[in-house]
Amino acid sequence: MSHSVELAGIGMTFGTTRAVSDVSFKVEAGEFFSILGPSGCGKTTILRMIAGFIEPTDGRVLIGDQDMKGLGPNQRPTAMIFQSLALFPLMSVRDNIAFGLEARGVGRAERRAKADDLLRLIALEGYGDRMPGELSGGQRQRVAIARALAVEPGVLLLDEPLSALDLKLRQHMRAELRALQKRTGVTFIYITHDQSEALAMSDRVAVMSAGLLQQVATPRELYDNPATPFVARFVGETNAIPGRITDVQAGTARIDTELGPLLGRAGQGAVPGAQGTIYVRPEALMPGGGENPLQAQIDRVDFEGSFALVHGRFDSGAALTASVPSTRLADAPVPGHRASFGFQHAHAVVLGDG
Amino acid sequence: MRAERIFNAMFWLYLVVFAAYLFTPLIIMGAASFNESRFPTVIPWQGTTTEWFAAMWADAAMWQSLWTSVLVAVCVVVIVVPVGTAAALVLTSLHARARSFAYAVMVSPLLTPGVVIGISTLILWRQMGVGGGVFLIVLAQSTFIICYVMLMVMARLQRFDRTQEEAALGLGASRVMVFRRVTLPFLRPALVASAGLAVLQSIENYNTTLFVRGFETPLTVFIATKVRTGLTPAVNALALIIIVATVIGAIAYEVARRRRAA
Amino acid sequence: MGDLKNRFGPGLSTIFLILVLFWLAVMVLAPNLMMIDYALRPNLPPAALGGPDDTYTLSNILYLAGEPTHRAIFFKTIWASGLVAAVTFAVCYPIAFWMAQRATTGQLAIALMLIIIPFFINEVLRTLAWFIILAYRGPLNAVLMNIGLIEAPIRWQGNGGVLAAMVYAYILFMLLPIYNAIESLEKAQIEAARDLGASRWRIHTRVVIPHAKAGIATGFVFTFMLAAGSYVAPALLGSPGSRWFTEIIYNWFFEGGDWNRGAAYALVLLVLCLAVVLVTLRLFRVNLTDVAK
User: What is the mean pLDDT of chain B?
Assistant: First the structure.
């Protein structure tokens, strides 16, 4: 039983600061949906509005097509997993998991049975009588998830729950969360500032900046077709070369830059005469030239195993980052020397500035 | 280096003198309860006896005053723990500017001399036709003991992660259940400690109680009256028992606290 | 307030607010207002209440200013309370510093326990203990005569006895705040000062005491207030020549039978204590929030 979540033009003002402005999107039932953005972009505020901890100053929140206005967090079909996890330190693991059931007046025996089922689900069978303080970070994480799932929520809200874990555990928990979501079919709305987390786990991602919604798309589309300059720069690495757009034809834009005219796919705001920027991913830059030739001075080459990262400066002074597969390291540039690069226009996107 | 050694030696001497200053009065007072002398003293020692304990035990007025003190202390705890806790919760829910003003108002009873609290309570209630007695003693003592409870609960609240309340709410708990199952259990150690402190504060209070006691004679008033009207070592025997009881209580509390912490 | 309701719901918040308002209105505010009202009215026989003479007047307070004995006792109470605070500070500061910076964990635990135990025992009993020690034929005189320091017993009761017992009674209120304040001082700061060649005196006056000023102010405020408002020590250990202001107030209520004048005197005592609190905090540049912890 999972629910869709729809935000219809919601906004939030704290005093004189506008934390969230006119955000609309719809999360489908059973979807793994992430909200990605730097800290302070309003993503946590959105999550708290969905959960019901705060009422939006404008717009509506609909869960399962029902308007949630005036309903408190304890009356909504949502459960939240907090950044701090917020496990109850004075209750056993089992009592933590069963808390939501207790709140719903479920009897003791049934609570216990359900909690033990969930402990099995998170592979912590036999840990029911421990206290949260006696568990490891990863175990506490799983207890928090089980506690939220125990109430069979229609929507699970996750507020950067992995941020306190170390890298290895974090990567492991990503896979586990993803698998859990598939198995339970519950709608997940996941908040993060870590783009690789969002790209790896989500069906779709919403990118936020300064309280404004930038783009809602699948991870692939977000990466290949950023809708705004912010998304282009924030999601993944990119080389940005500014210029003036001179021509747009059949989805291809020509932009005059200090490095000469370049071609890329035409994106949002790409109209002839406008100021724009062409964004090229590091892995799209190929040493040796070809279509869209560029010259650069090479500063440093960092060998990373399967690929090498090449750092340098274009002749215009803009920074260059190229990722060269190890198989092509033979013609890789040498630090301190000049080198030529090129990219296919289908691998670059031109966006209007502003 | 030699100067350092002399300084250290002098400091240790000071520590010893300080410890003697702290404990000699209590030891002498306790010892005097075993002296046969009619006036409580240790010099001259007229022979060891336990008759003063028997005399104290047989003193009906003493039992009456002990009962009054215990009754008052129980009533005080019943008032100050809920009110002090409520005050701490209200104060921590206020916004910064309102909070510092409210804080000043709420700690003001601590900065008011005890006699003034007793006097003002007496005056107000006489105006309403209520004279001194157990009721006024409880009320006057509670006025400032609430501050202690409030401060102790606030200290504990500072270490409280409020997302726990949100988590419980998000799991469907009513606000009453959140308070009962999450907030209150977290505060319990502070509540127990402040109840203990309230009992001690209540039983040992003299300055405030003196003015609102009416015709009641709580323990402190009983002892102070004895000092003026006919001190015998029976009072010392009572003092010794109170001292031993409080010290044992304090140590037991400390041991329990450490065991819980460990 | 919105936050409170949001947090605990309308039912519980209302209960909390009622409890707090009852405390502040009925137990704190109303008694003080009534005391002020009493202080500003003349003491009239019941028949004259509400009559033409029942008007607000400063006569009760002016009486204190005009009565030389009471005035003298009032000022003596102020400076003697200040003296108690100063002596308590001098006694406590070395101990607090040692506990906060020098003592090992084990020593600290023992020291804390030894200091706190006497203060679990009530003030009347502590005063009683001094009453016994300082008695004319008591142990102190006996010891001093035995070692030949004095030839005849000394009458300790009076100012000396009151001072000794008050310092004894308020040690904890001075020691703990100062200890807490010094405890938060990094050891490295003292070592740095010593490394730079500062004398012991300089380390304390320039590094430790400035750091601990909030604690020292707290200790002063509490000790002064407790001393000025104390009744039991002067009542049991004083002599006719060492009367305390609280004793006069008590007499107005229970012997002189003039509650209005007693209320006026109590009001003066209250104002004095609040003034000392505010002036001390201002002098030490400390916030009320840092006091009373």
Answer: 88
